[in-house]
Specification:
By secondary structure, this protein is α+β, with helices and mostly antiparallel strands. The chain has 2 domains: 162 residues, 2-Layer Sandwich (Uridine Diphospho-n-acetylenolpyruvylglucosamine Reductase, domain 3), CATH 3.30.465.10; 112 residues, 2-Layer Sandwich (Enolase-like, domain 1). The chain is built from 10 helices and 12 strands. Strands 4-5-8-6-7 form a 5-stranded antiparallel beta sheet. The longest helix is centred in the C-terminal third of the chain and has 26 residues. 40% of the residues are buried.
Length: 281
Amino acid sequence: MIRAYHQPSAVEEALALVARGAVPVAGATGLYTGRSRREAELVDLTGLGLDTIGIHDDRIEIGATVSLQQLAMASSLPGMEGARLRRCCRHVASRPLRNMITAAGNVAHSVYWADLPVALLALDASLEVRRVGASPALVPIADATHGGKHAWDGGLITRIVVPRRAGTLSFGYERFTRTATDYSLSTACVTLRVDGSSARDVRFVVGAVSARPTRLVPVEAALEGSALSDDAISRALAALDRELPIAPNYRAPAEYRRELTQVLARRALETARTWAARENP
């Protein structure tokens, strides 16, 4: 039951409502889940002007209520970062749902299968969090995806900041679903900088196999400073097999999801190698 529904036109007004316990909504696709309260006071964020994308020399700024469909179709997003975000968002659910799901909502809803947090973690993104009477704070998404209290509790994510890296960059991204609009059973993502024939600044992230997206440093270490050879990819996959966290899940057995993630990781790494070769012939 919705006890009250507010449509503020200013961020500070919305923050005051959230601070007293009201639930922020935009697309509202995650409002009624098994963990949701059935009685709620709602704050509609769609009138706050947070639906724009800003492109700067050193960063991309994504407003909280930018839809995944906006990101999927944003051809002006530059570089590897833009290509990575578009590819991720184009594969989420269906177009009607992408029109409703917002960037900040996909992060804040904190469901294990969410796609955008995987991409943002691989891109070293940060969240701008605002609370009543406080200056905006930038929180690295690597910190925000840990368990426990969320960085935005009692406040709002108002934008997502993705740094733009210099140099020749490459990425690979793979996810598997039973149907085109299903939740992911496993997701694998790698981003890296190409330095001659070597991979640098490697970020490897898996999603949908445990409670939150996970960056696997041992996999990155197996690739860092090496050419993306078959041997290097095999070392990375061996590290993945040792380190991959698999949580219980009623949708598929753990061993199936482990093997699936290995397949997706290999495809993502081979794609990154292919793009690196094209970008750095």
